Amino acid sequence: MNSPFLYSFKVWLSSILIAPTIYLSFYAWQDWGRPNVPLSDVNSLIQTYFNASIVGALLSFITWLMFLAATVVTYREIKAVSERKLILSCVGGILTILTFILFCSLFGSIWDVPLIIACSYCLCIVSGSLIYRPAND
Hints:
The chain is mainly α. The protein contains four helices and no strands. The mean pLDDT is 84.
């Protein structure tokens, strides 16, 4: 019962929920090297996580639709599950990189976005494509 829609949605939703955790953990790890971190910093981190998840979902929605289209085509044309996973992980990574390039070119330089943010989303899409199991048909 694993349809192309469900597969692509799980991969996309995982990236929306996990990528902010990765890059916020990275920043918290850098900042929390000092002792006695106040509770307000933790609350701010939690608020930032939810804001980042919402913004990530909004900005990547069209990318998810393109990933869904690629998933449907891949399901139709490729029968081997391992080949589907590899193709979809490459497509997902490319779409994620292109999304960051597009938004950065529209709203500022690519260097205005910390590389850890782009890498965390790309890592989640690629690994989600490889971890979740596409349907066998």
